[in-house]
Each structure stands twice: as C-alpha cells, then as structure tokens.
Fold:
Amino acid sequence: MTRGPLDGLAADVVACRACPRLVAWREQVAVERRAAYRDEVYWGRPIPGFGDPTASIVVLGLAPAAHGANRTGRVFTGDRSGDFLVAAMHRVGLANQPTSSHVGDGLALDGVWITAAVKCAPPANAPTPGERDACGPFLHRELDALRPQVVVCLGAFGYEAACRHHDVRPRPRFGHGLEVAVPGGPTLVCSFHPSQQNTFTGRLTGLMLDDVLRRAVALARRTPAPRPAGAPAPP
Structure:
C-alpha cells in the first residue's frame, strides 16, 4: 500500500533525534517514570499528529506532556490537558467519546486533526528557540498536507507557530478568542491552552473552550456563528 504524506511524515517524526536535549529528556522520563505509571512502558519518542486525515480543522498545541503523550505515544492522551480538550471536542461533535486515555481506547476524531508545534516532550514544558525551529519543518509539512480551513491555536506558542508558518505580518497580539484570517489560507482561532495552570484556576473553562471549538466548526463550514464572548475583533 502506498503511504500518504501524513503517514510518511509520522514515520519521519518518530525517527527524529535532531535535538540532543529533547532526546535525552524524553528518554530519561521514559526510564525513570512517574510512580503512578511505574509498571507501564513509556513511548519515549517524538509524537506525530493524530485524527482525521481529511480534517478541515487543526488543533495546534505546544508540545507533548512528559507523562502524557510521551508515555502513551499519542498527542493529548493520558494527561489532564488531553482530558479537558477531548471532552470539549466530544461536546461539539468532533470526537466520538469524551476521553483520551491510551492508544487503542477507541477514540476517533471527525473533521479535526490534533498536533503540537514541537514533537518531543521538553524539560519544564519549554522548548528552546533552536528546538522550536528544528521541529518547524515537520509542522510545515503537516499543515501543507492537511490544508485546513481553521487552525485552533492553543496558547501563544501554538499561535506563534501558526503565524510563522503562514507568514502573518503584522502579528496581532495573542488573546483568547482572537481570530486572524490568513489571506488565501486558514483562519487562526485562539484559545488559552488547556493546561492545568489555566483550567484549575478558571482562566480557561469548559464553556470557553466549547465556544472556540464551535466557532472553528462554524468557520470550517462557512456558516455564521457568534464570536466567543469578549473575543477581540479580527484585525
């Protein structure tokens, strides 16, 4: 069977060892493991995107979590950020179930693809600019293959990665609910990242994320929809 561009990209992502610090960290975490997962075999490699290969919406995050995707081998799977995101995707009809616990759990996405700007788990969840740039070609290939109508940018890091790919200039300041229409390309729709720091403090609520995802669905279908409450006007 001939591999499609996303299959080939996934194989290249998984084989990558370009960034020594990230390679060392992801493999160290996979050996030391968290106590709650001490009996599990960690993935410990880069994480390709996941979802519907015909997606009109891409959800773009920062990087895999050390004990989430770096453990399970699937983006936004096995951690609370993934729980929060996938539950919202299920509520708006983009996922067949509200949970994302492990590969083979039955999760299927409809019309959406989820990925991260950096494919390896970074120490302190903070890739260096060099690591970000080294991963950039993977994201470029991913977005070029998918050609989505909407990119949901989770956090400023994901937004900046999308802006770099689409050469957005000037770049409007990131904010929850911000929309940027790329001429000849997708609309970027921004949300605070579903990190525990944001969801536990109420900076990002389920309703807020639902509103952003519903807006993305409406934009992908080219049908009118209300803007999220308090969203800045498009530039």
In short: Residues 129-146 form the longest helix (18 residues).
